Amino acid sequence: xxxxxxVILGVGMHPWGKWGQNFVEYGVAAxxxxxxxxxxxxxxxxxxxxxxxxxxxxxxxxxxxxxxxxLGWNGARIASSYAACASGSMALEAARAQIRSGRCDVALxxxxxxxxxxxxxxQAGERPNDPDWLRFRLLGATNxxxxxxxxxxxxxxxxxxxxxxxEVRVKNAQHGFTNPYARYRQELTVDAVLASNMVAxxxxxxxxCATSDGGAAVVVASADYAxxxxxxxxxxxxxxxxxxxxYPSDQIEMPDFATDSWAVVPRPGHAFRDSVAxxxxxxxxxxxxxxxxxxxxxxxxxxxxxxYEQLGLAEAGEGERLLHxxxxxxxxxCPVNTSGGLACFGEAVPAQALAQVCEVTWQLRGTAGPRQxxxxxxxxxxxQGLFGHGSSVILTR
Amino acid sequence: xxxxxxxxxxxxxxxxSNGPNPHLIGGQCEKCGTxxxxxxxxxxxxxxxxxxxxxxxxxxxxxTIWSYTNACYKPPAPYVAxxxxxxxxxxxxxxxxxxxxxxxxxxxGVRVEDVRVGMEVELxxxxxxxxxxxxxxxxxxxxxxx
Lengths: 397, 146
Ligand SMILES: [Zn+2]
Hints:
- The structure holds two protein chains of two kinds.
- Helix content of chain A is 37%, strand content 18%.
- Chain A is an alpha/beta fold.
- Chain A has a nine-stranded mixed sheet, with helices on both faces.
- Chain A is built from 14 helices and eleven strands.
- In chain A, strand 5 and strand 6 form a beta hairpin.
- Chain A has helices spanning 23-38, 58-61, 63-71, 87-100, 131-139, 143-158, 162-176, 190-195, 223-228, 272-284, 301-310, 319-324, 341-345, 349-365, and strands spanning 6-17, 47-51, 77-81, 106-113, 198-200, 203-204, 213-222, 235-241, 293-296, 378-385, 389-396.
- The model of chain A has no long low-confidence stretch (mean pLDDT 95).
- Chain A has a domain at 6-117 and 211-228: 3-Layer(aba) Sandwich (Peroxisomal Thiolase, Chain A, domain 1), CATH 3.40.47.10.
- In chain A, helix 4 packs across helix 14 (349-365).
- By secondary structure, chain B is an all-beta fold.
- At the A-B interface, helix 5, helix 6 and strand 5 of A face strand 4, strand 6, strand 7 and strand 8 of B.
- The complex binds zinc ion.
């Protein structure tokens, strides 16, 4: 192991659901599970990196301190990161930077959330200068509105069918129904998916990710620390990408009303979501052909098809072929969302990017049980947070 | 649902609703010419430009549909939904001259079945919702009659 390598010593999760408890409880449960998995005492943790939640009051804004206090103040330094759905990756990157700079040897990264029912709605109050308030006010544009715009464009441009989208959902149900941490554990048929209510044409209820309570945690350490612990063949972080868009972006993004204008400055060579994984591949010195599996952010089942292409697993418009050829199914060349993905979890915003890291870690250790990808060597995660937060992590063993 | 109540824009300075040619109001950087919507007033979006001066410019009234969807369920507040709720369409429309995509509701009565990617649409102004005292107006996209 190289000197600046960062090792994943332990991972842990609290099951996703609608438990109605304080988010701190999920975070602490996940943290204790990750510490036990790592064989590290909480009192030995030198840095706590919290992924914030905006829906649980002040403790959510200072997540690092909240989790540290709940575990019992141990004097560790802390950071709290907010990057919407990408908060977990940003918190992981903060911990990795501390370790690589030599400021600490072992760190705990935690994200957890308690969510309200229904659509994610803006916070209360009149905020006529906030685009996230105005898009609800003036357009009635919910999060699924944006997912549906991508899905419909894909259908009209590439000939994607409603059935293709439903088949992604069915695949993820098959992957996730044995996952003890998943909230929705039932096998589905294409007919059942297509019989669920239309929410935002062409997307149906079962094809849009719900919001969940949940918590995930990761213990990361320097290679030296891992060696002293007797861990020599652990899972390593090969890359963390937290890129932002390059101007001008021609993709309409939640919660915006319009894209940038490309009338004066020409568009960059790559769209934002293409650049997210590209930056991770560059850092890792690896490419899509090296990936044994991928965990991607299926906010809608149609977006998973987009991710196949944005991760470089397929050319634009070829995502359906990958699905139908079984490439992205367990047993295929590069299974996608072996955990069941957001379809089986629902989104617990600050925990979700860390949950992706937990799943890839289990896969690389060969301990994913019925979901195990045979001989998994390298895995990638991808997600995107509101307001330009790219997120991708590559793990190897 | 037109009434005799006074009609006012649901948001100030985003679109021109009076006269025969309703249009969106964008911002144009006085230094580099970059266009923005909603109108940028403080910072140019162009990373190579540090200008802080912008003029208001009318955006094209016509564009082509980049994509579209609808809202089958009543959106949460602060959206003010009709009662009983009637689903409505939403489109993202590409403006060729400005090189940008702008969202808007589809005009009253236009269903997702009526549109497709690439179809030409024009901007219209319609009622978004009404209060006791007034009707609030917003821009919408309507297929160009062919
Ligand atoms: Zn400028």
